[in-house]
Amino acid sequence: MRQLNRKLLRDLLHMKGQMLAVTAVVACGIAMFVSMSNVKYSLEMTRADYYSRFRFADLFVQLKRAPEFTLEAVRRIPGVAIVAPRIVTNVTLDVPGLDEPATAQLVSLPDRGEPALNGVFIAEGRMLDPSRPEEVIVSKPFMKANRLKPGDHIGAVINGRWKRLLIVGVGLSPEYIYEVQPGAFFPDNRRFGVFWMSHKALASALDMTGAFNDLSLTLTHGASEKEVIRQLDRMFSRYGSLGAYGRDQQLSNRFIGDEIRILGMEITVLPTIFLAVAVFLLNIVLQRLVSTQREQIAVLKANGYDDEAVGLHVLGFALAPTVAGVLLGTGLGAWLGSALLRLYGDVYNFPRLLYVFRMENALGAVLLSFGAAVGGALAAARRAVKLPPAEAMRPESPPVYRPGLFDKSPIAHKLSTPVRIILRNIERHPFKSALSVTMISLAVAILVAGRYTFDSVERMSEVEFGSRHREDVTVIFNDAMPPSVANSFASMKGVLEAEYYREEPVKLTNGYRSRRQTLKGLQKTDGLQRLIDSHDRPQHLPHQGLLLTTTLADLLGVKPGDVLHVDFLQGARRSVEVPVAGTIDEILGMSAYLRLDELNRLAGDGGALSAGVLKIDASKSAQLNDRFKHTPGVAGIMMLQALKKSFSEMIAKSMNTSTFILTSFACVLAFAMIYNGARITLSERARELSSLRVLGMTKREIAVILLGEQAVFCIAAIPLGFLFGIILSTLLAKALSSELYRLPLVFTPANFLFAFTVMVTVAVVTGALVGRKIVKLDLIAVLKTRE
Questions:
Q1: How many CB atoms lie within 10 A of CB 388?
Q2: Domain shared by 43 and 93, yes or no
């Protein structure tokens, strides 16, 4: 076997270019599998560790106000393990160095000891001193964005009274891994943060002594979450409960959960493409190897090497680049996974990131790659094993060529000789040509799909911050205000336009399907806030009935014309039947809309408003901002341009990174296919091309014959790759969409131009490398070779 090993090493060195190309493709596929698998597992472990160490709750309840004596009844509910009451409210802030008003969510902490649930990690500073009511702990993202430190002061309007708060610590909580302002989807860490305050101080400020408005619970093992939620809803309905819900509906947990789900899908799709290409490359390389080494195989068998030894020898040509690809890809995947996890750490707030390199992932990579190697080498190894020594000593019978469809066409004789040779050869090997085009098109598809996510998020930004929202400021009220009070914002100096809307928590029911949802009543849909679907088309509210997002309608199993049972969860708690008038395909969230006057009628009150949207005079913004900071009754302020900037910065970082990675790997894939195709064609037709040189053809004409075939493949692969890219992007859009957001299908000319430019660049570079081989072609040595 030592002689076979020496032969294997010698042949591998002779074919080093092709073997390196296969190694690179395998390495890319394994790197993607290892990195994404490790990142997915690391995120899961980081989240589980965080939830466990800081006692993240299983159930949550928000309500208006409930007396503390009700807690004993909650503890007696079967399945309830730990009950943690607290006070939560939103307030307006005056932050040093920030012209606009900011918003804080104040959360109470026990006066003694740590909270039983939803603990706080102190990243810097110390815990609260209950004897000092002005002390607060502030969330780390807010501190970092505003360049604050323990010892700094912040002004806040709490229950209509101005307070000067002292920052004593920097904290994080598992409840706010993804920290966004209530009512928003995108973080604005400069203008929204979470503040923790002693229970006694916050209860005193809000006149909530002996009461609570927020409840967290954990369940015993095997407890029925559905039954506990049912009893909690029954118990707290009289106290303005908006309905209990589990972790699966907690906003922060849903965002990180969706991210982990997306990673799981990417693990399946992208590595599969690369390993499929590796199988194809190995197959055509080894099939060609067996053809050119027929005599050597015959000699090996004649000298006593059995079929098993010959088969393993051929398999060694596949295993060598595969082993190298596994080693390189595993190392690259480990490094890339660590870098990607740090990128997730910039978006999601963890006290520590646990990067775990799982040996199971490495083993899975080995199995996948060796499966690809065996799959690619199997046909060639079987062919070598079945080849009788006597037959192998003779050259292969030359193929019988007959005029094909191209030769019979009227345009054949009008083309130059090199072009006729190219087209005739493609016609004579249709299956091989089709596979080559398909494999190259997969690289184009990856480029298109990689840019699609970027374009999709750009469209999301354009729709949300351009077409749908035209306001400058959204003012959210602490409690629903009568129109006469709320409309006072329109009279402020510097306010150019003002609109208002009402939101009412309800339970929508259709048969056995139900959903807790917010009904949003709008004054109009062609002003500052508009109804825009995912295709950027304006929609209008019906005169009567509900307009549901398509996702919500599908979840409830309703269509236009059906009737929903609506239970109001606040106020008079009325129950009404409301028809579904239509649906709208929105990008973000799930919503139920109707006219403001219709919502007021259904609620059975004189009308109330939850928030206002304002268009302001830029020259008066400083005065307005100062007034907003000190206005009582305001729970939060959202600045549209600030949200857009924060969203763009967050998306740009992650999307640029993912696009760069996918582009790099797609270039490797394209290069490997084009280079291997050209090298194999050169080895198969070296004698033919040398003969043509002797007969008078120039090096340029020979290069056209060799590289022209690959050029035809590339030209054919680009539109096919565009089609595959659209299909892959469509599948990704469906797979990655959730209740929180839907990726719109957007394919811009820039996307296809980008993929086209990358492919042409790779083809030109590859052609230049192979062209050097043609220049150095030894005519005499090639013509002496007997095929």
A1: 9
A2: no
Q: Could you give the C-alpha distances from 211 to 61, 86, 204, 237, 238, in angstroms and in order?
A: 14, 8, 11, 16, 14
* CA separation for the pair 558, 593 (Å, rounded): 15
Q: What are the angstrom distances between the C-alpha of 318 and each of 374, 381, 671?
A: 7, 10, 19
> What is d(CA 242, CA 229) in angstroms, rounded to the nearest whole number?
12
d(CA 269, CA 272): 5
User: How many domains is the chain partitioned into structurally?
Assistant: 3
Q: How many helices and strands (H and E) does the chain possess?
A: 22, 22
Are residues 312 and 13 in contact, defined by beta-carbon separation less than 8 angstroms?
Answer: no
* Domain termination site, one of 141, 173, 207: 207
Give the type of residue at 457: V
pLDDT reading at 320 higher than 50: yes
- 336-364 residue pLDDT tens: 888 888 888 888 899 988 888 888 777 87
Alpha helix positions (H), 587-630: 596-603, 621-629
Contact 478, 161 (CB under 8 A): no
First to last CA, the chain: 26
Q: Is residue 181 part of a domain?
A: yes
Question: What's the CA gap between 128 and 522, in Å, rounded?
Answer: 43
Question: Are the beta carbons of 612 and 500 closer than 8 angstroms?
Answer: yes
C-beta of residue 745 within 8 angstroms of C-beta of residue 455? no
| CA pair distance 465, 185, nearest whole angstrom | 12
Q: Residue 167: pLDDT above 90? A: yes
> Is the residue at 186 inside a domain?
yes
Q: Where are the alpha helices (DSSP H) in 498-612?
A: 550-556, 596-603
pTM reported for the whole predicted model:
0.80
Shared-domain flag, residues 27 and 106 = no
* Residue 475 φ/ψ, nearest 5 degrees: -110, 115
> Quick one: 115 and 193 in the same domain?
yes
pLDDT band at 786 (very low <50, low <70, confident <90, very high): very low
Query: Do residues 201 and 105 share a domain?
Result: yes
Three-class SS state of 306: coil
How far is Cα 631 from Cα 157, in angstroms, rounded to an integer?
8
Q: Which of 419, 432, 456, 355 is nearest to 746 (CA)?
A: 456
On whether residue 124 sits in a domain, the answer given is yes
Nearest Cα to 678, choosing from 175, 101, 18, 120? Answer: 18
Q: Give residue-wise pLDDT tens across range 669-700.
A: 777 777 777 776 666 665 666 666 666 666 66
H runs (alpha helix) in 177-250: 199-205, 225-236
Q: Looking at 616, 633, 659, which one is the last position of a domain?
A: 616
**Residue 372 lies in domain:** 1-56+254-397
